[in-house]
Amino acid sequence: IQQVFKQLFYMVNAVTLNNLLLRKDVCSWSTGMQLRFNISQLEEWLRGKNLQQSGAAQTLEPLIQAAQLLQLKKKTSEDAEAICSLCTSLTTQQIVKILNLYTPVNEFEERVTVAFIRNIQAHLQERNDPPQLLLDFKYMFPVLFPFNPSSITMDSIHLPASLNLEFLNKV
Description:
- It comes from Casuarius casuarius.
- The protein contains seven helices and no strands.
- The protein is an all-alpha fold.
- It has one domain (1-124).
- Helix 2 packs antiparallel against helix 4, helix 5 (77-86) packs across helix 7 and helix 6 (92-101) packs antiparallel against helix 7 (114-124).
- The longest helix is centred in the N-terminal third of the chain and has 21 residues, at 2-22.
- The protein is elongated and about 80 Å long.
């Protein structure tokens, strides 16, 4: 069950983050607020179902950071440093793309300046990020089956001759 929810939450993360990276109309402060609220509801649900140890919440980390990026101030050099230290699960390319797509929804907000984006790129140039922008929403985590030892001992097992396993010898 834990593995199923980890996979499901990863897919939610990947599809949502990919939509955020591809749609200018959703890159705004209010979308960041809505995303953060929805993610907190998912985290609360995991706690309620006692699934915190499943790793499902950790798969949402890039989306959490993207929501926070949408909500942070984007003007000064200190803001750039804060963004760089906060967005460790996002690639440089993803951070820059979100900042380029950021669209103010009211007159109190301002567009992100080109100088600010260049400042972010300068701070993040030493990162070795993968070149891909979008997340692979078809990625599948490996399924792990727990080992449950049998109470039957090997010396009590009889192998029928019809199985043609004469090469196996009891030691």
